[in-house]
Amino acid sequence: MIKVGIVGGTGYTGVELLRLLAQHPQVQLRAITSRKEAGMPVADMFPSLRGRVELAFSEPQQAPLTECDVVFFATPHGVAMAQAEELLAAGVKIIDLAADFRLQDTGSFEHWYGMAHSCPQVLKEAVYGLPEINRAHIKAARVIGNPGCYPTTVQLGLLPLIENGKKLIDTQHLIADAKSGVSGAGRKAEIGTLFSEASDNFKAYGVKGHRHHPEIVQELRQVAGHDDIGLTFVPHLVPMIRGMLTTLYARILPAARDTDFQQLFANRYANEPFVDVMPAGSLPDTRSVRAANTLRIAVHRPQGGEQLVILVVQDNLVKGAAGQAVQNMNLMFGLEETLGLTQIPVLP
Amino acid sequence: MIKVGIVGGTGYTGVELLRLLAQHPQVQLRAITSRKEAGMPVADMFPSLRGRVELAFSEPQQAPLTECDVVFFATPHGVAMAQAEELLAAGVKIIDLAADFRLQDTGSFEHWYGMAHSCPQVLKEAVYGLPEINRAHIKAARVIGNPGCYPTTVQLGLLPLIENGKKLIDTQHLIADAKSGVSGAGRKAEIGTLFSEASDNFKAYGVKGHRHHPEIVQELRQVAGHDDIGLTFVPHLVPMIRGMLTTLYARILPAARDTDFQQLFANRYANEPFVDVMPAGSLPDTRSVRAANTLRIAVHRPQGGEQLVILVVQDNLVKGAAGQAVQNMNLMFGLEETLGLTQIPVLP
Amino acid sequence: MIKVGIVGGTGYTGVELLRLLAQHPQVQLRAITSRKEAGMPVADMFPSLRGRVELAFSEPQQAPLTECDVVFFATPHGVAMAQAEELLAAGVKIIDLAADFRLQDTGSFEHWYGMAHSCPQVLKEAVYGLPEINRAHIKAARVIGNPGCYPTTVQLGLLPLIENGKKLIDTQHLIADAKSGVSGAGRKAEIGTLFSEASDNFKAYGVKGHRHHPEIVQELRQVAGHDDIGLTFVPHLVPMIRGMLTTLYARILPAARDTDFQQLFANRYANEPFVDVMPAGSLPDTRSVRAANTLRIAVHRPQGGEQLVILVVQDNLVKGAAGQAVQNMNLMFGLEETLGLTQIPVLP
Amino acid sequence: MIKVGIVGGTGYTGVELLRLLAQHPQVQLRAITSRKEAGMPVADMFPSLRGRVELAFSEPQQAPLTECDVVFFATPHGVAMAQAEELLAAGVKIIDLAADFRLQDTGSFEHWYGMAHSCPQVLKEAVYGLPEINRAHIKAARVIGNPGCYPTTVQLGLLPLIENGKKLIDTQHLIADAKSGVSGAGRKAEIGTLFSEASDNFKAYGVKGHRHHPEIVQELRQVAGHDDIGLTFVPHLVPMIRGMLTTLYARILPAARDTDFQQLFANRYANEPFVDVMPAGSLPDTRSVRAANTLRIAVHRPQGGEQLVILVVQDNLVKGAAGQAVQNMNLMFGLEETLGLTQIPVLP
Fold first, then answer.
1. Alpha carbons A29 and A10: distance in angstroms, whole number
2. Complex prediction ipTM
3. Is A149 a catalytic residue?
4. pLDDT digit string, tens, across residues A257-294
5. C-alpha to C-alpha distance for A135 and A156, rounded to whole angstroms
6. Within a domain: residue D312?
């Protein structure tokens, strides 16, 4: 059994981690911390866990984190990097669901997250936890920067198009028009995400610049093997709890007009347990992955023209956060990659 | 033109007052205050008012409230009573949408609202602003305690049954099972009313005791002319923005079994412009009054038995708050009661 | 492995059965029928099942139902009774999620469902499948009438109060104010349950009379051991997909004023794996059981008065339909009662 | 007073027309037809109109349509063109909210709408009813093809960029990523738009081709004065009742890099009563126009790069349908353009 600790379990990624880990056959939950709620049984805050999770929140300092095999950070940005070295020294692996170990460029991190990076040496060894791209490195990693929700959809939606050099699409003018459920904004008391503000309403946000933009571009460059990546990224807020759909627009290069893009995607993901390339013409909806770790992709080429339209859906809290983190844990500990992640989506 | 001031315009009753008053043909908006947002144009906070309301929020101390004819308080409880005497002295009328002038028993006020009542002398002259019961007094009033949203539905739903003594129903065992949209909780940054908490969810709250309970009982006793009123009141939170439906259960007394209750209600409200007694068998839905000042009632007697079931719907922000306040203003200033309140409900 | 057939798999209880059964460790799905969709792979209609359910819908006549160990009917009322005898003759057990085997009085069935009962002899041996009341009979049954969603909440919410004779509450004036998510109306093309009709809206329905009323009364009488049951039942439609909350009102008899009702409920359900009696003062919300087979109960006695308020929540598609059916199957086949039903609720 | 008839009043554009026209100071409602509901008072179907609209639905043949000054068609495609000639001959003006008089190319109409065009001679004189482009022609028109909802947002969002020739943006690679509330699908009994299907869900549709695509391209070509218009149009379904947001992507031509696009839009729409160009950096939400005839635009240029992002919001039932139709009526009859259309948006 893998002994697991969670730092910061009062948010949506925290409770989702608890839901998944409490059902994982190889996991023993050892500690969950919350400075503010120390002493409160987890199931008092989240009655969905009554009878299933016996733990109470504990003070971060008093939690037996160093006795764990792995610690998940479901915290605001900046917490994981403050505790990483001590945990690593104790032999504990780390999976950070915040951004501390995503951006390799500490200057960029400071710019977008408004704080200096406090342990660049750990950052250097950290592995970006997108299994479909980095599986081998993840297996050997001690520290995982778990991808952001938007970046997961954009990368997996573009991966087959860009990993083979510059031959297929114009990589300088990519567009990602992304739509997320409100849970992506977290469980924070804020007016903007109140029911009476966000319900029966729709809007774009972060058009000037969003923290996930540099993360996406960094990884697309890595995969593409060149720096000619230009991306316009516009996120939108959908009045639903869970779910994310990203509509990707990429222009096909003249020399690639005869490519069978459907087949290209199908081949690339044929062996991926959590990526579903749907049949040609499909229109994936977010509920088709609700509460499950699956990401579905549909490839469209309207009127056979030069514009590709790639539709990608996932549950932002699962494949976009907690599920992907558990997938990474499975890889790091040599378990079956799908262990504890085989829930069928909840529909309707 | 009536010169109007609003104290506390950043909440949902505030913006709803602005929507109604900005379209009212006899109103001139003179001031709207907010300590926190002083200086910000109202339309920057609520873009729905762009081009329609030119005012900016002003500091409470600097707002020309004493130059107004009437001031609406769309504030937390306790604010109106602190400013009432000064305004009255300047000849300004007051309509308080909070609870400061609803409960005549200051002990009860202290118990339920956790603060002493600071101006019982003004309270004494205050009139409870439910026009269908108190129209004459409202016309002559200087201070109005605008009813709570739940109390409006319960009172108008029971009024015809109790105002004629104890002959029709058992008044000691009344049940009001009430359901409100989330906007009733106000525009406050709180976790419980976040979209991801309140959406796709339903619950009861305040079962132990709710502030509207003493208000309802006080008024029912007043109307009934006796104190034998027993009420079980259970409010629930519905995942919708606006709207309130209250299901009332009352047992018919043996001697009243032959009463035509449909006719009783129809007669009682025949001349009320904002109360619609629907045909027998109707099932009113909240959207049928969305954004309008109408309250609809349907009278049911399942299987012709001894239990009456009264269904009452209103928009909690209109007839349950801002619309009723404007209705009161119309009465206080001798205007047509429906002036500025003839919007047709928005459906769908 | 238990060989399972499903008749009528295109509705919400059908797809929910598929979700649960496809994850059940002792079940082998053998057939799923739909006259209209014969030939279509199930996962084409419900992409949530892609990669998890390989079956296609088959013509009812051609499906190998008689080779199954058990057949679930997720059909409109009237279908199960037409096929029951043939299946029983072939040694197949039957679990009907419609109403064919719920009402023992065929006259009442005809009155409420508008059709004659075509196999009263099977009806006679049918067992009402509420395990918390009928566990022993269910284990021995060949035919199960799976309870309606509303009846499940009302019965389990009143059971501890009535099963010990007439000593605790006034059973002649029970009130059940019930609220259901829209999926309870089924997956039928109807205007009344369109998103634009049911969203941001709330209403009561079936006030004159609802098919679940006779079912509830029949079972309450059975449990109480007498016929003095009077029930006013008012269902409401909540703008959410899944979930049901029933607010029950019962008057405590004078002689029972000193009863510890919290303890009464806690004791009654202490060994029930799917009934959770919450701590005193709890306010259960429907999302706390979303997509799980748990039913939660909270016992309230406002101001220590004579009125009991019992709050009951369940997922109408799980404990209210498909989950309860699987629970019954487990009992009928001697399996662990919770097998395949241990999913943790999905929150948020 | 203008005598008005409505053909087909049982859908969402029909009831929205009724809401607006019943409050219009210069309109007298004379007839509203529905073959299916003939005889039923309109307010029985839409209780929001109780006490405000006295009309009953009448048989199309028996309705006094030829006595009207103008007839609105809120019908499926194909109905208006069948009745147009007779009405015109009787001196009645026509405003069709369906597609019969939008596409000048009857071949294109047949391709997209699956029926032959039955009166091309009337089509020839029909005017496309987008006042911000065609005001002069509308004033003189007898027949108006009221624009589709999506086309209204795309055209008004691109108009300032293309009407001055080819100098500003690459018109061959335009992208419109559009999102609509569910009411856009109409009030038809269909599974896909049931609450339990469309709520808490998000998807794209019509990616292969959507009927609004040829309409948009036709009009953009008209405005641009050339045919070099290439558009990728992807509509999405948002779980909200009303509202539409279209995100437009246009690449700035090298020679136009110094253009002040904010000013360009502000100038273009300075005198338009229903188009609001918001301040730079604004993020319009759909609720800011809920139930009102306003369309709001925000102009973005992320990181000052070469990609323009134009955000456009409207209420699909108002400026996207019924409101625009009334705006056209006002113009056709020489009334103030804003008459009866000054409702303030309903927020929250």
1. 15
2. 0.97
3. yes
4. 999 999 999 999 999 999 999 999 999 999 999 999 99
5. 14
6. yes
